[in-house]
Q: What sequence folds into this?
């Protein structure tokens, strides 16, 4: 359903993505792991065209965009296929939790207020914030804000949800509640691509793990392939740094 | 100079002067509304880095900031008719009030442009990205997400400059506009009680400013309702 072909992106002289090829099936949950600067976040942002790739093709569902000759209409229709959950939540500060979730339903999907509200309430219930619908982002904790961010993405019922390090900005004690919500959505069969540093979470939740380093896909496979039977030295090095307890369990 | 100071006259003069408060407020209201429109238009080239226009706007803003409003008023009053004369348009008989409104609108426009620009730049880009990511257009993002928040940030500066602008209107009499200040000057000429007239004027301007401040404060509280310390009363 998602097909990324030969995706390239540079910032100045720094080539961040050096020809990425990834296919994702409907309902698949993919985690992208890798050291900082490996291009994971840039890859995710290219899928949403928050960054314009310099080369390659991005296909989501029936929308396919070749980099280079893109118009605004194509970009907007590609963006409607996906929804993004940001590291820093990026909630609309002047809107309540409910209004944040309703915004896309009203403005982008052109639903009426009643229907939008029903959908929004349903997803806010799902992320466990039914009692916070009238709170503004500034009145919510980081974990609650991120759950609103997830609700905002989920409400639009996109083909795929893109998670850009959704727990990296959170206090350690708030990480759990957000991961729990993501796991819950995963069980419902939503296609998801997750960039994360939460190794155990990625291992448990993912159908497939992609390990990136230095702008290329180094290795991909099932969690078992990557965490236990990795073939590449770079993957092994990275995992050793990220999950020291692995040494004891083997 | 003048006659013996008579405090009773201060109260007596006030109703005579407030009859002309309407003109003062007319100048203020028109120049604020036009100023806001000019400010929005002038902020756009700077926000979107449109070449040439951006430099022209920068020059306009720096000219307005760098020259006294009294001189701007004279430049418009004497200069505009002279320029339009080149195209054989005669506006020398136009009411002086219009020159005042034009000058104050241009002056407010430059100040508002800077206020708007800085308010819009102050909103973190993440919200724009979030708006784009859910499929909103540039325009939808601007008027649904950015603009309502920019107004809140800009509001205290806008209210300050409106209050400043009210006081600046007292210069309109220099080109013969009969506003409150203008009436005060004629009252001095006819009664020779200068001090009493100026005290009356001070009282009236002060009361208007206090009322404006009160109104702005209430509006600000409403705009701030989603801030951590804003009182949530919707």
A:
């Amino acid at each position: 359903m998602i097909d990324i072909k030969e995706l390239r992106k540079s910032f100045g002289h720094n080539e961040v993505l050096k020809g990425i090829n990834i296919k994702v099936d409907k309902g698949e949950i993919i985690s992208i792991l890798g050291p900082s600067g490996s291009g994971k976040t840039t890859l995710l942002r290219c899928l949403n065209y928050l960054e314009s790739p310099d080369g390659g093709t991005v296909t989501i569902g029936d929308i396919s965009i070749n980099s280079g000759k893109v118009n605004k209409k194509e970009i907007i229709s590609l963006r409607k296929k996906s929804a993004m959950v940001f590291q820093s939540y990026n909630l609309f500060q002047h809107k309540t939790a409910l209004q944040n979730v309703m915004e896309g339903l009203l403005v982008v999907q052109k639903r009426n207020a009643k229907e939008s509200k029903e959908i929004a309430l349903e997803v806010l219930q799902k992320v466990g914030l039914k009692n916070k619908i009238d709170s503004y982002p500034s009145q919510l904790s980081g974990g609650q804000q991120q759950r609103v961010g997830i609700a905002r993405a989920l409400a639009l019922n996109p083909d795929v949800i893109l998670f850009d390090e959704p727990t990296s900005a959170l206090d350690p004690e708030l990480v759990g509640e957000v991961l729990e919500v993501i796991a819950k959505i995963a069980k419902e069969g939503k296609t998801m691509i997750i960039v994360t540093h939460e190794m155990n979470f990625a291992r448990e939740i993912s159908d497939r793990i992609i390990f990136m380093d230095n702008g290329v896909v180094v290795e991909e496979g099932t969690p078992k392939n990557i965490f236990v039977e990795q073939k590449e030295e770079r993957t092994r090095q990275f995992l050793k740094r990220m999950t020291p307890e692995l040494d004891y369990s083997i | 100079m003048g006659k013996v100071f008579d405090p009773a006259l201060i109260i007596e003069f006030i109703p005579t002067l407030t009859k002309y408060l309407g003109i003062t407020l007319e100048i203020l209201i028109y120049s604020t509304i036009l100023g806001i429109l000019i400010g929005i238009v002038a902020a756009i080239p700077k926000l979107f880095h449109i070449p040439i226009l951006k430099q022209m706007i920068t020059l306009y803003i720096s000219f307005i900031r760098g020259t006294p409003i009294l001189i701007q008023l004279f430049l418009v009053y004497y200069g505009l008719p002279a320029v339009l004369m080149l195209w054989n348009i005669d506006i020398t008989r136009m009411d002086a009030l219009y020159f005042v409104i034009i000058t104050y609108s241009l002056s407010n426009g430059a100040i508002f442009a800077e206020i708007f620009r800085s308010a819009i730049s102050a909103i973190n880009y993440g919200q724009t990205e979030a708006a784009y990511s859910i499929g909103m257009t540039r325009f939808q993002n601007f008027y649904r997400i950015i603009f309502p928040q920019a107004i809140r940030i800009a509001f205290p500066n806008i209210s300050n400059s409106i209050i400043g602008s009210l006081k600046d209107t007292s210069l309109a009499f220099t080109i013969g506009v009969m506003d409150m200040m203008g009436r005060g000057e004629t009252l001095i000429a006819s009664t020779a009680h200068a001090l009493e007239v100026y005290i009356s004027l001070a009282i009236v301007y002060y009361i208007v400013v206090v009322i404006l401040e009160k109104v702005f404060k209430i509006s600000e509280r409403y705009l701030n309702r989603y801030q951590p310390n804003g009182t949530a009363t919707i």
Summary: The two ends of chain A are 36 Å apart (CA to CA). Chain A has one domain: 2-242.
